[in-house]
Structure formats: structure tokens, C-alpha cells
Specification:
Elements (H helix, E strand, L loop, with lengths): L2 E2 L12 E5 L26 H4 L20 E2 L6 E7 L4 H17 L3 E7 L8 H12 L4 H10 L6 H10 L4 H8 L2 H16 L7 E4 L2 E4 L4 H20 L7 H6 L12 H7 L12 E2 L6 E7 L4 H5 L1 H10 L4 E7 L8 H13 L3 H10 L6 H10 L4 H10 L3 H13 L4 E2 L1 E4 L2 E4 L4 H20 L7 H12 L27 E3 L5 E7 L4 H16 L4 E7 L8 H13 L3 H10 L6 H10 L4 H10 L3 H14 L6 E4 L2 E4 L4 H14 L10
Parallel strand pairs: 1-11, 4-5, 9-10, 15-16
Antiparallel strand pairs: 3-5, 4-6, 6-7, 8-10, 9-12, 12-13, 14-16, 15-17, 17-18
Helix pairs in contact: 3-4, 3-5, 3-6, 13-14, 21-22
């Protein structure tokens, strides 16, 4: 899943693009619910959610989620109540909307749906859309408007909302008056607060008879939990509880708020990374500072802009003790982030990085080329030199290197900081930074007193922090499994390279337009070289919906596969990710020696659509909702991870296969 991180002070925006998301690297990987660490809270071994292959158990905690007059669809006698906290501009919510409608069809009067509003602050049209739906509800047409909004998610401007109201036959004058009614603003605020209290800070979030299920998960995950709760509800009815009282009875002793999760300051103590500091990276503070903060950031990320005042405060309060190093991590779904990063580096070349840094974050919604040139002029750059630098693309390699370094240390969301190597995620308040900085200063003072030279301080304290970092608990964070269970992943007709009888099979779910997928290609080649005869790699397509050229590229690869040259096309596509239009695909076909006439005819026929969709569906079923995701003998490995992460799993699998561990893999 790529993601953005928010600050705890604004819980309604914790999941950016969540979430991203979701998107790019970690897109869509969700874990259900706030976990309980007590033995009694574990699901029964025979419960559907515990048994479901490939799923992490849903936390058994029941939350007291009151309906409070929210819109309801379904019978009051329904044995299962699904309360959804949602955002009309959130793409994951629209996907979940389809799932919820299917669930209603399948469960009929056994399921009722309750809708609550949680418009995220970085979706400018989400709150007006929520008000439009609530105002329509005053005229008895909440659900009709609800469906309209999700069906037209990219058209939620004021004129479009009014158009939908007219389509539904609403009294427009009354509808507009109701939209402006403060009571609905209050309703939204209360529901956002309720979501936060329950630990449902991202969207969509569901409570099924009070049990938390987070994200636009596959329908089978919903069904497993609904079936489990349905069985409990039927037992209550048999025991004399009226059907209309089942929900109230189920949640009456439920938790009213989520248990506090380990905060990022605590997490930082356990997550320590060796982070390189290139000599050409922008920084402020002395090179011999007691504390070095390496920041991975994105100029278009709203959470990154929020942390700027905190960094300013750090610069003021710790001028002699803290150095801040900036590294670029433009997220793939932020179209202007890379050009902005290039502009910042062009300003750095002229000694004015931080002036441009502040300009870009102050003007995040205006990062087009003309605006970048205007900012260059405003901060006193040589504009001609600045423009020439942008035109030449001279800083692209530097930015790509930063991105690769960020990915290698796990900084796939922004902003991510490493404070003397300690991972610190999100736009957190100054006091949260201060706590860690003060701890690190105390360590530095001891080292200096013991005779460490100032220029050796960062290396020594980093090594000390790495050595002191506790190992992750066997059960993983919050009691969840360290990794999903081993799953049966068939190779089927997927393209494969490597020895037919290799003891280790790697099945990759990938997207030719995903930048993280391209980064892992060299890693896979290294693995093939080091484990010759011992691994084989199968490729399956998982084109993400927001990558417009991913499906055509996947079809081109399969068309090449039909002519025996899948891997040659695979390498061409990843080497040319920014040129995946039809003309380019035909050019690559010619370059690798395909019968171009047949290649073009195969693409025109659409004959590979079914296979691509089948791969995607299989990936979703297995939990591979982000790219790249790998299954190594059925064990899940997510993301463009370093070589060592792959080797660890491969070596374990080789050992299982008979103790044969390749000497050259060590």
C-alpha cells in the first residue's frame, strides 16, 4: 500500500490516500480493528473469521456504536447492523459502497445499514456532499442522494450537487436552506468525533454489530464477520430476545472508545534504520549536531506542509544541537510533486533550497511550471539558470535516488522522519518531536563526555540505537500475526522463468506503471543470479485502477508472452514506465523482434482482458491489494523491499525444502 501519514491531533485525516494508499506501494492492505492483547479476546478457533484462509482474525471487541438518528436502510428487526463511517469523495468508500449493496442483496432483511459521515479534510467536496445527502434526507431521499453521490464521485461541485437534487425531484429552496442549517454541521462534527473515539479515523470504516472492520475489503471478509455475528444474534433470539432488540443487547456492554494504540514515539524506539545522508542533500543545522533528523517528504502532500511550523520551531529551539536533512519522496499519485522537487533542488543549486521549500509548501495547490518560475523570481534566483535546470532534467536522478533510499528504509508514506535513525511517522506536534530529540541529546552528551569526537557522533549514536532496538515481538504489533498465513498460490498459466523443479516459487503480483514495481526488478534479477536453479519467478498482473496505462501494458506483455518473449517485454515496459501509450508498446514489440502485425491484432482483440482480470481478482482474494506483492512459497512479502528481506524468506524456505541453502546466497 503508498500512504500519507497524519497527525494524531487531526484524527479524521489519518488515512491519506491511505491511504493511500493505497496506492502505489502499500495500496489497500488493511488490518481489521483495534487489537486486544488479552487471551480472552482472541476469536474462537472455529469462528469464520478465524478460519478464513488469508485473512487476519477480526478483533472480537464489541464497540458501543449508537445509531443516534442516522440514516438507516433495512428492517428494524435485522439481526445484523452495519454502521458505516464514510466520505463521498473517498475512492475506497465508493468501492465499498458496491460491496455493501451486494451484501444487502445477499442478506436481505437480516442486514440493515446505517450511514454516518466522516468527510476527510483533504477532500474539499466531501463535506458539501455530506450536507447535500443529509439535506435530501429531510425530504425522505437520503439514500437516493447517497447513491447519486457515489455514482458521480468526480462531480461533487456545487452546481452538480444542485443538479442531483433536481434529478431527485427535491424542493430546491428547502434543500438549500437545509444544507445551510447548522444542525447538519453539528451532526457531521459529532459523527467525526464518534469515529475518532472508536478508532475509525480513516474511511471507509465499518462496525458490524459493533465489531470494527476497516477499509474497502473483499466481500468475503465482510461475509465472514456477518455470518459470525448472525449466528450469535440467532442464539439471542432463541433465548427470548426480540429481533428488534438484538442490536441494543449486543452492544449494551460494548467499549465506548478504542484502546489507546502505541503512539509513534513508542514505535520509534523499536524501529531504527540506518539512513544515509548524501553530501548533496539540503540541510540546516551543524554537521556535528547531537541529533540528525532525516526527513522524507513530498511538496504536494498536505501532511508534509503541516509539519513545516514544527520544523521551524525545532530550528529555533535546537539551533546548535539538531541538524535536519531533507530527502525527496514524491508520491506517485501527486502529479506535481516531482516537478516541485526538481524546482527545490534547482533552488538548492543556487543556495536557496529552504526559501523555495517554504514557498512550495505555502502554495501547495499551485505547483504548475509557471508558478514554479514565479516562486524562483520571488526568492531572488537566477530564473534563466533555474529554467534551464528544470528543462535539462538534471535533478531527476537525485530525486529517484532519494525515493529508492526512502523505500529501502520503509519511508513509503510522507512525511517520515528518522531521528538518529529512529523512525518517526507523520505530521506530529512539536512536543512529540521534542521528547525524542531530548532523549537523543542525552545519549549524545554521554558519548561526548566519554571522548567521542563531534564528527563521529552521528555514526556512533546511530550504531548504538540500532544495537539497542528491541526485536519485534513474535506475534507482531498489537498481537497480530507477524505475517499472513501461508497461502496456496497457483502459478497456472502465468509467465515463469527459472528451473521448473525449483524448491522456491515466487509469484509476483505487479503493475507495469507502478514505480515501486520497477524498483524491485533489479532485486529479482540479483535473486535469480544468486539462487540459480533454486528459485523460479511467476508474474501475475495487478494493474491498479489509477494507472491508466497499466492494463494496456499488461495486455502487451501477455501478447509478447504468446510469442515467447514475455520477459523481454517485461523489461522494456519497466525500463520505459513513462511511455506506455499504444505507439510505444508497438515500438517495443518491434525492438524485441515480435511479429508486430500479430501483436497489434492481439491487442485489438481484447483477448487478454479476462486473464488480467482473473489475475487481479486472485490477487485481491489473496490480499495482494497493493503492488508489488510477492508470495514466496505462499508466504506474503509486500513492497519493493531490500534484497536481504527476500533472501531471509528464501533461505528459510530452502531450509524447509531439505537444508539446501545456496552458499553464494550468503
Amino acid at each position: 500500500m503508498a500512504k500519507e501519514h497524519s497527525q494524531p491531533m487531526k484524527p479524521n485525516v489519518i488515512v491519506a490516500l491511505i491511504v493511500g494508499l493505497v496506492l502505489g506501494f502499500f495500496g489497500g492492505r488493511v488490518v481489521s480493528g483495534p487489537s486486544s492483547k488479552t487471551e480472552a479476546a482472541k476469536p474462537a478457533a472455529n469462528s469464520p473469521s478465524a478460519q478464513a484462509p488469508g485473512r487476519r482474525p477480526v478483533d472480537p471487541t464489541v464497540f458501543k456504536v449508537n445509531i443516534d438518528g442516522a440514516p438507516v436502510k433495512g428492517s428494524p428487526d435485522a439481526l445484523v447492523t452495519l454502521v458505516e463511517f464514510s466520505d463521498y469523495e473517498c475512492p475506497f468508500c465508493s468501492r465499498a459502497h458496491v460491496t455493501v449493496e451486494k451484501l444487502r442483496e445477499q442478506y436481505g432483511n437480516k442486514l440493515r445499514v446505517v450511514m454516518k459521515q466522516n468527510p476527510l479534510s483533504f477532500h474539499p467536496h466531501a463535506k458539501p456532499a455530506a450536507l447535500a445527502a443529509l439535506a435530501a434526507g429531510e425530504q425522505g431521499k437520503y439514500w437516493e442522494m447517497h447513491d447519486k453521490l457515489f455514482a458521480n464521485q468526480k462531480k461533487l461541485d456545487e452546481a452538480s450537487l444542485e443538479g442531483y437534487a433536481k434529478d431527485l425531484g427535491l424542493d430546491i429552496t428547502k434543500w438549500k436552506a437545509d444544507m445551510a442549517n447548522p444542525k447538519f454541521q453539528d451532526t457531521i462534527q459529532k459523527e467525526q468525533s464518534q469515529a475518532s473515539t472508536l478508532g475509525a479515523s480513516g474511511t471507509p470504516a465499518f462496525f458490524i454489530n459493533g465489531r470494527f472492520l476497516s477499509g474497502a475489503q473483499p466481500i468475503d471478509n465482510f461475509k465472514a464477520l456477518i455470518d459470525e455475528e448472525l449466528a450469535k444474534a440467532e442464539s439471542l433470539v432463541k433465548g427470548g430476545v426480540p429481533a428488534s432488540q438484538v442490536y441494543a443487547k449486543t452492544i449494551e456492554k460494548g467499549a465506548e472508545k478504542a484502546a489507546p494504540k502505541q503512539n509513534p514515539v513508542q514505535q520509534a524506539a523499536a524501529a531504527v534504520r540506518k539512513v544515509d545522508i548524501p553530501s548533496d542533500s539540503p540541510s540546516f543545522g551543524p554537521a556535528t549536531a547531537k541529533v540528525t533528523i532525516v526527513e522524507f517528504s513530498d511538496f504536494e502532500c498536505p501532511f508534509c506542509s503541516r509539519v513545516v511550523p514544527t520544523l521551524t520551531q525545532i530550528k529555533k529551539d535546537y539551533a546548535k544541537d539538531v541538524r535536519v536533512v531533507f530527502r525527496n519522496q514524491p508520491l506517485p499519485f501527486h502529479a506535481s510533486a516531482k516537478p516541485a522537487a526538481e524546482a527545490a533542488m534547482a533552488a538548492h543549486e543556487q543556495g536557496k533550497f529552504w526559501e523555495m521549500h517554504d514557498k512550495l509548501f505555502t502554495n501547495q495547490k499551485a505547483l504548475d511550471r509557471a508558478s514554479l518560475e514565479k516562486y524562483a523570481q520571488e526568492i531572488g534566483l537566477n530564473v534563466a539558470k533555474f529554467k534551464a535546470a528544470l528543462d535539462s532534467g538534471k535533478f531527476k536522478a537525485k530525486i529517484e535516488a532519494d525515493m529508492a533510499a526512502g523505500s529501502a528504509v520503509g519511508a513509503n508514506g510522507t512525511p517520515t522522519f528518522f531521528i538518529n535513525g529512529r523512525e518517526f511517522v507523520g505530521a506530529q506536534p512539536f512536543d512529540a518531536f521534542k521528547k525524542v530529540i531530548d532523549e537523543e541529546i542525552a545519549k549524545a552528551d554521554k558519548l561526548l563526555a566519554a571522548g567521542t569526537k563531534p564528527e563521529e557522533l552521528f555514526g556512533k549514536i546511530l550504531a548504538q540505537n540500532i544495537a539497542a532496538a528491541p526485536a519485534a515481538p513474535a506475534g507482531g504489533a498489537d498481537g497480530a500475526p507477524a505475517e499472513p498465513p501461508v497461502q496456496k498460490v497457483e502459478v497456472g498459466t502465468a509467465p515463469v522463468k527459472g528451473a521448473k523443479n525449483a524448491p522456491v516459487t515466487i509469484v509476483a503480483f505487479s503493475d507495469f506503471e507502478c514505480p515501486f514495481c520497477s524498483r524491485v526488478v533489479p532485486t529479482l534479477k540479483q535473486l535469480e543470479d544468486q539462487y540459480q536453479g533454486k528459485i523460479k519467478v511467476a508474474f501475475k498482473n495487478q494493474p491498479l485502477p489509477f494507472h491508466a496505462n497499466a492494463k494496456p501494458a499488461a495486455a502487451a506483455a501477455l501478447a509478447a508472452h504468446e510469442q515467447g518473449k514475455f520477459w523481454e517485454m517485461h523489461d522494456k515496459l519497466f525500463a520505459n514506465q513513462r511511455a506506455l501509450d499504444r505507439a510505444s508498446l508497438e515500438k517495443y514489440a518491434q525492438e524485441i523482434g515480435l511479429n508486430v502485425g500479430k501483436f497489434k491484432a492481439d491487442l485489438d482483440s481484447g483477448k487478454y482482458t479476462a486473464q488480467i482480470e482473473a489475475d487481479s481478482a486472485e490477487g485481491t482474494r489473496l490480499g495482494a491489494n497493493g503492488t508489488p506483492t510477492f508470495f514466496i512459497n505462499g508466504r506474503t512479502l509486500v513492497g519493493a523491499l531490500p534484497l536481504e528481506a527476500f533472501k531471509k524468506v528464501i533461505d528459510e524456505e530452502l531450509k524447509k525444502a531439505g537444508g539446501a541453502v545456496a552458499a553464494d546466497a550468503k
